[in-house]
Amino acid sequence: MLTREEVLKIAKLARLELTAEEVESYRKKLGRVLEYIHELDSLKTPQDAFVRHVPKDSVAFREDKMIPFPQHAALMKNAPDVEGGSFRLPPVLEES
Amino acid sequence: MNDKYEAIIGLEVHAQLLTRSKMFCTCANHFGADPNTHVCPVCTGQPGSLPVINQSAVELGIRAALALHGNISEESVFARKNYFYPDLPKGYQISQYERPFCNDGHLIVRLKSGGEKRIGITRVHFEEDAGKLVHQGNETLVNLNRAGVPLIEIVSQPDMRNSHEAGQYLRTLRTLLRYAEVCDGNMEEGNFRCDANISVRREGQKEFGTKVELKNINSFRFVEKAIDYEIGRQIELVEKGEKIIQETRGWNSAKNVTEVMREKEEAHDYRYFPEPDLPPLVISIQWQREVEKAMPEMPEAKRERFKNIYGLSDYDAAVLTSSRELADYFEMVAGQSKNPKGSANWVMNELLGKLNASGQEIEESPVSAEYLAELISKIDSNEISGKMAKTVFEEMFETKKSPGLIIKEKGLTQISDSSVLEAAIQKVIAANPEQLKDYRAGKVKLLGFFVGQVMKETQGQGNPALINDLVKKALE
Amino acid sequence: MNIKGTLDSYRKKEFKPSEFIDGILNAISKKNPSLNAFLEVRPEESRGKALELDRRLNEIDHLPLFGIPIAVKDNFLVRGWRATAGSRILANYESPYSATSVERLEAAGAIVVGKTNCDEFAMGSSNENSAFGPAKNPWDLQRVPGGSSGGSAAALAAGLCLGSLGTDTGGSIRQPASLCGLVGLKPSYGRVSRYGIVAFASSLDQVGPFGHTVWDAARILEIMAGYDSKDATSSRTVVPKYTEALANASVKNIAIGIDQKWLEGLDEEVRRAFDKALQGLREKGAKIVDISLPHACYSLSVYYLIAPCEASSNLARYDGVHYGHRTKHPKDSEEVFFKSRGEGFGTEVKLRIMLGTYALSAGYYDAFYLKANQVRKLIQKDFEDAFQLCHCIAVPTSPTTAFKLGERTEDPLTMYLSDIYTLPVNLAGLPGVSLPCGLDSKNLPIGLQLIGKNFEESSLLQVAQAYESHRGVFPEPLAVRGGT
To answer: Could you say which of B27, B92, B128, B445 would form a disulfide bridge with B80 (CB–CB 3.0 to 4.6 Å)?
Structure first.
């Protein structure tokens, strides 16, 4: 079972604002699921095994060609707030 | 720096790759455009968009790795670096984490003391750039033109011990990347960005001191300054017995200090995991060999070739290969004038001096390589004297005109016509009977006087060697 | 009415596309209010496309989906249409481009008649997680159509289209197909492009068709499938003409694998229908062999680690900055993130984002995401081993028939258990198809699932066809009458 602090920490990492009731509700639900998932702990698995889900004959590369996307306007149409062609936001808090 | 202390410096460089299109989409990889015009569903992180790798970007990365003598993995993995920031449209950056494409490597820097130092490179990996934020009053504007531009991140070992070594490392790295045609290496334009990790410890101390990350060094001029300041700041704190806080600081070029950047208290938890939208990156040995074969000539090879083919000294070869542009310029002059030693002399001693004085790079030289070669040829064919050539060169530098045109305009053609010179000599001898008597009496040093007078008479255009011979004969 | 029959009717000039589409649109306007299968319809646009096709009947041989009305799940982008993915956070998002799969269908003459309801971001097994209210099961309007592609299943089962598209990450095509009495196919991972699909779990998502018949599903698949240069995970394997192979479909000497242990505790009625289906296959010459998938029972745990982890990252782009819902009057960028996401995402989505964030966070990666992927490899290997002994594997699609609205919304695990027979197939990247095989005592459909070898949809569809031919016509839902 996760603690309240742990739930708040996760919500912060995921940028989800939760009400106090939600924190408690998620705490219980997460606990429920994590409890079930713990059945994997006892399974022996080789260390290096990692699934390759991508088909072996896929093509990851493309040629270095410049092909512009013709509908910029369509991309900006869904923007909540635009100024001079840029997305506008209230002040950004932190440097990355 | 205080002798009791040792500084440990590591550098992280982000270099933008010279591709036509972005890392994972076909948008243009160049700036200057209006905001959000070089964008598409992929680089703006629209729902449903997927990345596809720019093959050329990988090729340039391979070149960089080869130039840095790195170990290229045949299979490496792209990974997602997850964090929230307005310039990061997907909420994650596609990068490489546990398995970068290149491990280990090194480069050799030349120090002002004359010695060399080998700086190790921990890793090189691919990543995509983020967009740009512009803070404007009470709002922030986001432009995603730069989002998705291909980068390589080059992480050095913490092998540098002072700001000079750090500066030389950056200059050398920049030269290598420019030589390999991987990156433009322009810090002001932001296509070559550097962060430094700096700590200090008492001489002889085993443990490392607390590392401070230094960002916002956006010019080669600031590198040494910023690092020196930070080292000084840390030593001062340690001397006072105070703790050094592990934090990120930025260089303030107006105040000439490093300042704390507003930063989260906890370290970022990037929750790296392998990028599920891409298969592993396969760089076969065969591909590496192909890239190696097609590599542009690198500085060390070029230096050796200059020594062998042009008979240049090690020092001269080093100076002339300090940049691709300079090396190419020199070779053009040498090739056209067919006088490599003369070309080296003129480029290094005359041209570079004037360019440094006017703060210009070789690419901006008002004297073109062709014209300089032409000038050298004219000296070699005795059309003008070496001394006269210097005057012509000054004029070439000022006006960008060809030597031929300048010589014509100013009537500076060297006089090698014996009859013209004889006439001048006779005139001079007639005007100086006393000196003639003294010379014939034994004062042979006066030959120089007569030669000088003849040069004056011919407005400096007389062929000095010929004048010398003819005067000697005439004075007998 | 089905795709094959309609194409025939068009050829015989029994009616024109504009007439047929008109009928479909009228049926939609009449029935959708009670079904809530469609979230967006554009009658003028659809009618316009149909009118255009009226004049192009001579091209029908080159347009394999000529005039066929298709419903598309709302987590597909179709240019000019909204793509909500069942979420408030994308309630007004207008697609700037079209998904490759949809483009290919439209190029083949299909007409998109609407975007269908689904669980938010494809997370759910009942369509009750939609921000726009649940879709209802045409067999019983008090019951769920299944999820997450509930709307696509409901629309087809109610006759409001002739084929529909869904996505399947853990069973989201096959399970609704089972609950609504339809054919629902999840192709092999990488068979159909994911470009233009709102991503949920990148290593598991696949696009697939719903059809009334195996032939219809095969027709849609053969048009959509194939390498797409915009999707680095799509395969270059040639796409066969699936419909052509169906003509002489036979299961003579085909070995069908059953894992008896896996079926323990199964609902009696479902078990009976399943056994009857197997008997039918036996009568047609198939051999039933015993196989074992010892790690399949861990599928739920593996899935509920891998999918939320990938989803937590895929959904980070919904941050209120450059599209989607942004909170009103944010005072700084952090409020933009926290409040927009807090307001825009529903409960189940937030739960899975947090689960995934936790499982990827510092110190937990090895125990969770890495471990889950290692067990996933074991599950994959189980299937590989089983396929040494059989050509395809049979299992019920869903352990139960359609449950009532609200019945499983309390405890997340109860809902998750709806997918125990479908999850392993996604984890192994294999193709799976659900076929209606019976009705229970409440007149609700039961589904038979067939699982095939990687990239062998052709063989899989042939077995499916053979079963369908043997079974005969499957009844239509009684709950929603009227219309065409």
So the answer is: B92
Q: Which residue segment(s) compose the domain that C101 sits in? A: 3-254
Provide the percentage of residues in chain B whose pLDDT is more than 70: 98
C203 included as an active-site residue: no
Which of B45, B47, B82 is opposite residue C83, by nearest beta carbon?
B47
- pLDDT tens-digit profile of B187-235? 988 999 999 999 999 988 888 899 999 998 888 888 999 999 999 999 9
Predicted local distance difference test score (pLDDT) of residue A96: 44
Q: A5 exposed, middle or buried (CB, 10 Å; 0-12, 13-18, 19+)?
A: exposed
Per-residue pLDDT tens digits for C294-346 = 999 999 999 999 999 999 999 999 999 999 999 999 999 999 999 999 999 99
Looking at the structure, do residues B210 and B131 belong to the same domain, yes or no? yes
For the CA atoms of B450, B453, B454, B455, what is the dihedral angle to 10 degrees? 120
With respect to residue C21, please indicate whether it lies within any of the assigned structural domains: yes
- Mapping DSSP onto H, E and C, the string for C337-376 reads HHHHHHHHCCHHHHHHHHHHHHHHCCCCCHHHHHHHHHHH
Q: What is the model's pLDDT at position C484?
A: 37
* Reported confidence tier of residue B470, pLDDT bands at 50, 70, 90: confident
pLDDT of residue B417: 76
The answer for residues whose C-beta is within 8 angstroms of residue C24's C-beta and 6 or more apart is C69, C113, C160, C161, C484
Q: For residue C482, what pLDDT band results from cuts at 50, 70 and 90?
A: very low
In this structure, are B400 and B456 located in the same domain? no
Same domain, B250 and B274: yes
Q: Contact A26/A7 with Cβ under 8 angstroms?
A: yes
Where in the sequence is the domain holding A36, given as residue range(s)? 4-42
C356 Cα to chain A: minimum distance (Å): 9
C172 tagged catalytic: yes
Q: Taking residues C200-222, report their average pLDDT.
A: 98
Whether the per-residue pLDDT at A94 is higher than 70: the answer is no
Q: CA–CA separation, C230 vs B41, rounded Å?
A: 11
Q: Of residues C16, C49, C73, C115, which has the active-site annotation?
A: C73
Instruction: Give B-chain residues touching A52 at CB under 8 angstroms.
Output: 279-280
Question: What is d(CA C18, CA C48) in angstroms, rounded to the nearest whole number?
Answer: 8
| CB neighbours of residue C425 within 10 Å | 31
Our CA-based measurement puts residue B77 at a distance from the nearest CA of chain C, in whole angstroms, of: 14
CATH of the domain at A23: 1.10.20
CATH code of residue C34 = 3.90.1300.10
Contact: B54, A84; criterion CB under 8 Å: no
Interface of A with B in 8-47 (CB under 8 A): 13, 15
Range of the domain at B130: 5-287
Q: Cβ(C18)–Cβ(C47) under 8 Å?
A: yes
Looking at chain C, which residue has its C-alpha nearest residue B84? Answer: C316
Alpha-helical regions (H) of B273-417 = 285-293, 299-310, 314-320, 324-337, 340-345, 352-357, 369-380, 386-399, 403-410
Of C93, C97, C232, the CB nearest to B41: C97
CA-to-CA distance for C412 and C308, rounded, in angstroms?
13
In a domain, C46, yes or no: yes
Q: What is the mean pLDDT of residues A51-71?
A: 93
pTM of the model: 0.91
